[in-house]
Every structure is written in structure tokens, then in C-alpha cells.
Design goal:
heterodimer; A: 565 residues; mainly beta; 5-stranded mixed beta sheet; 39% strand; flat; disordered C terminus; B: 181 residues; mainly alpha; Rna Polymerase Sigma Factor, Chain: A; Arc Repressor Mutant, subunit A; 78% helix; globular; disordered N terminus
Chain lengths: 565, 181
Amino acid sequence: MSNKHTHDGINVLILRYLAGEATENEMDELRDLAEHDTTVAECLFQDACQEVELYDYFQEMKVSAGPVQSGQTAWPVKKTVFAFAASVAFIFGLFALLSPDSRLIQGNPIISDVDSGVMIVRRGRKIPATENMTLTRNDIIEVSAAGVARIRYLDEETILVLQPCASIQILSDKSGKCIKLIHGNIHATVARQPVGKPMRVLSEDGVVEVMGTRLVFGTDDHVTRVDTLEGSVALVSEKSGEKQVVKAGDYAQVDKQGILTAGTTVPRVVDFTLVYADTHDPIPGYDPVPDMVTVDMTSLYIKRPGRIACRINTEPAVIDGVTVQWSGGGRRVLNDCPFIMPLGKDNDYYLPQDSIRRTTGWSRTVTPFSVSGSNRIEGLPRYFHITVHAPEIEGIGPGELKVINGSFESPAVTGQDWAFRTPIGWSATRIPIIRAGGQPFVGKQSFFKQKPLTLSQDLWGDAEPGRRYWLRFAVRLIDEKSSVVARVFSGSEILAVTEVHYPDAGQWKAFSLPFTVPEGRQGQGVRIAFDLVNVELDGVQVEHCSLSRKNSWSSQSTDVGGVFE
Amino acid sequence: MTEDNSSNNELQLALLEQNRQWLLAYILSLTGHYGDSEDMVQDVLITALEQQDRFDQVVPVGAWLRGIARNKIREYWRRNQREPVLVSSEVLERLEQVVANHENQALAPDYKKRRLQMLRSCMERLTERTREMLRLRYQEGRRSQEIGQCLKMAVASVDMAMSRARKLLRACMAERIEHVE
């Protein structure tokens, strides 16, 4: 290294260069250094690698944590507040409490299992929860509407399952385990606690002290409720100090006025929600899904074929379990809330293709129960039926194919056994999309740019007029500046257009844009175009339906032409 | 399009995507501009896709991509009428060696995921203020001067603090890699 520069000086110079902030003089200096010392090139590359990693890391954090308001920093620069806090800590000798070791709290809770929508608020900052993350005092755990989080105490078998939309704060200290439920429901399995150190679960309105049992604790804007599944606990009203012992199978609740009521928990099935089996996110338009509903599969976007399921919504929201009975006699008990009911057979979530061919309906009888074993309390069974409908039978012309009593028949091929592939069972081909000017982009792309970037490509040269196609894609908006406009053209005519804007930021959203190629446009081609600002784009596909003969499920792949250079 | 061709294409796309991170670092070290480097990576991958028929399987994929990148970078400097920082063939050769060594490690299937996990835990070692400084730079794209205004620091102090934070992160990650191995 040059004698003129210290290591720190060279590092700063390299960083300024990589950040695009180096002046002409600094560039000359760096050039000079690199010429005389080849290790500078090595440092430069290693720093560039770190630069890329840091960008990737913080962009990922940005997407997970949601948008930060312009001009607002996550670190509150308020010296007076710090000064005050420091003085108070000094006066009361609380420095010890703030040391890292003292943050290790009773039982050592960790996040043992987590969905993607779970966030931890730690010292004013929101960070995504990850598996095996150690929790510290005052951490707030927030679960999204479609997520679930499990917290496990390493020293024993105590497990807390946070249900969708739940939010809790860890308040445990050396005196024992303690959590505050801010909102939602938790299902707690509490191992036997040390004498004199019960686990405390509290809300704004009430508190329960648990020595070892299973219970469901929930709170909303009106009441705090505890349902005991095993053993017994006592619920104490914060306002009146009144106490109610709650035995297995019973519940007690306390309202905002501090009034306690109690009774026996008789669970019931409220309704059902159609969800994506992979994420458990509700499918728009089917939350709740009415009994006896007919689902138009062509209106759904399913990234992986067949991955739909049904969530059973109960009251109370968390109960001990549900029994699901198939119309054919099969039976299955679901114990993990949220209760996701598979629509397929053989315990998977796939829609059985055979059933699609012969019939389009599934029936289930669902019975909720609140306590397992001999004290089991069952609610009323509820019958549920769902019909899958595929109205868009393209490829052989309107009127030639009919759905009769759940079977597909075609007058043109009477007597033949036909197999039908709905779009949900479709193996779509990913099409390379070409940027305006003839350059394709690759796979999932991030467009963290503040200016619009237009991508367009002639998809195929021989689209079939009159046939219905779907342009499917998924986007993730980053912040309030993000937007997407997708258009499909035939010549200069716009066949379909859709726009996506904030506030749907942070989550992947799937879109399906149907279009039909006009008659008389044979061989003229179709073009799709995206205007993308500050978004990620993925899974761009074009699909259409067609028929195939029996036993040839995989032979008919998406046929959208071949001009994809 | 046959299914074979389709899966072949997907494989190619995945291969190219796997090379994105080191390629971006390579181009960044030669251009010193992150945004332009990102665009150039995309251009390189596009060219690679277009020319995949001409790819000689004897040459490693990384070397082939670097070859395409070098042409793009030359064009970039010519267009911007500026002189690159790394000029002599000796220096460039050294860079090639370093990148080739790094590229092999980076191709491990879970490389990026592991590094991000390590980075996440190493971030905990930094002070809140330093983390905020990094966030302003890498999440919000703020320049040193703006960061200085936000955090009431001189520009030179921001640069120095940033350099030290990165040094600490590097050391922490090296320590963890050693621990794992």
C-alpha cells in the first residue's frame, strides 16, 4: 500500500468510489494507488461484493418492513429523550437491567416456527421474525392476517401459538414468565411452572396465572376471554379484582367495565374461507365462501397448480380441534389452528384431477370440539359443499361442450371419454419477456427505479382469433411510488389493460388478465407491455385452455406459439 | 415450444440468475456506479441468453460471462468519455483471478441465503446509529452528505464511520464462516 495513505484512508476512498461519490481527484488517486499496488484491485472487488450484499439485505428489509415515510428515519434523533432516559437509568441504578445478559429472560423464549408475515418490534424497529430467533424483554411479536407464529421456551415444553392478527409483548423477567396479549388469540400449552413463579398472561382487562395447563386466551376491543382446555386457571378482572376459576371445557370473560361472566364453551363453525394452500392467504372473493358455492376456477390465479384449500373459521376463533368427515366416509382430525381443510383426497391439498374429470363437487362435514378426551365438548356438525366450475372450455368452439351433471360431454365426440384440464391444473410455460428494443430480462426482476421502465414483447406470431387467453403475472409493490400497468395489444388496439397501485405494497399479488384475439387478426401477433415503477415482477405467463384425450394429461402443454427469441 | 426446450431454458435462466451477485460486484468494481452496474448485469445476462448457442462448454460459465461484461464495460467508459480506475493489464489480470476464486464459492446453492443470515446476525453487533446510517445509504440510497444532515455528522465522519462499520461486519462474517467450517 502507498505510504501516503493509511488503510482507513484507502478504504474510505474505495467506498466513495463504489458509492459513485468520488471526485475526479479521488479517482486519480485511486487509479494511482491501483497501478502501484495490485492488492487494491482485490480490495475493490471485496468491497464491491459487500456493497451488493448490503444493498440486497436492506432492500429485503425494506420489502419486509413496509414503507418508511419520506423524511422519517427509523432511529429517533431526540437527544433530550435519551438524556432523560439516561439520567433516570442512572438515578435508579437500572444500568444493569439494560445490559445484554439481563435481557436473557425466564425460560429463554425463541421463535420456533414462523410464517413470512410475522414481524418483531424491537426497540422501535420492525424486523422480520425468523426461525430460532431469541426473544428479549419488551419485544412485540405481530402476526399478519394469514400468518401463524410459534414461540417455544427452550428450558421446558411451553409453547405459545399466535393466531392470525395476534400481537403480544414479552414481559418476562427473573420473577417468571409473563406475556401481554395486545390483540388477537393465542393457544398456550404451558408446562408445569416453578412453585411461586406462575406464568402470567395479561391483557388490558384481565390476567390469568398459569401453573401448567392448556388454554386459549383472546382479547379484542370489547372483551378478554379465556377458554381452558386442560386443568384449570383463574381469570382476574384488572378493574374490579373479581376472580373466576375456569375449569377444562369452560370459559370466562371480562369486559371493559370489569364485569366477569362464565359458562361452558360450546364451539361452532362460523364459516369457511377459500385459501391458497401454500400461504393460507384468503382468495379474494371467497372470504368467506358460502356453502354450496360454485367456484369459477378460471377466475383464480394459482401459481402452483391445484394448490387451494379451505380454512374452517370457528367461534371461539381458537378451539381444541375439528373433525372433518369426507362424503365417502373418510375422517380426519385437525388440531392445529387455523384449521386448513384439504380439498383433495390422500391428505394432500391437490384437487384430485380424476374428480375434475367426473364430478366437480366436494362435500365435507365439520364438527368442532373444545376439549379432547372424555370431557370432550362437541359443537354442532356443519355440512359444507363446494362445486368447481370451469366455464371457459376453449378450443372446440362455443356450444360444442357442455357440463351435464358434473360430467363433461361433447356432442362432437359423443361416447368418447374426454379428459379436461382446467387452468388450475395447467402446466403453464414461462415466456421470456423482451424489453423494448429487443432485450429480454431474466426470471424475477426488481425495478427499484424511480422512473417508469417499459417492457414489451411480441409474444407470438400466430395467436388464434376467437380463442380466450390469460396473461398471468405476479408483482410486489415496494412503496407508495410503485405502480404497474399491464397491457395486451393486437396491432395498435388494446385488448386488455390493468393497473396496480399502492397501497397494496409489501406482498406479492397475482393478476390474471383475460383477453381474446379479434377475428381477422390471424398471424398478426399479440404484444404485451408492462409499465413498471419500483416493483418486482415474476411468473409472467400466458395460458389458454384446451382439451386432451384421456390418459394424456401431460401431453398438452400451453401452446402459445413459438416466436420467443 | 417443446417441454424439453422449456425446461432447458428455465435451467439456463436459473444458472444465469445464480451468477448475478458476483457479476454485479465485478462490474461495480470496474465502473464505480451501482445503478449503471445493475443495468449492465441485465444486459450481460441478456446477451448470454441470446448467444447461448455460441457458448463453448469448455470455457467456464463465469469466464464467459466476464468476457461479455468486459465488452460492455469498455463500451460504457467510451460512452461516458471517462477513464476507468483499473487500467493496466496486470491489475485487470489480478482482478480476474480474485473474481474467479470468489465465483466458485458464490455458486453454492444456498450461498446467498447463508450470507444474508450471517449478515443479519452481524448487524446486531452494530450500534443503532450505525445501523441507521447503513439503512439510509443502502435502503434509501442517500448520499454521504444527506446522511450527515440526517444524523448531524460531517461528511468525512460519515464516510469513516461507514468504512469502520463495514470492516466490523466483514470481520464478524469471517468469524462466523470460520466457526461453521
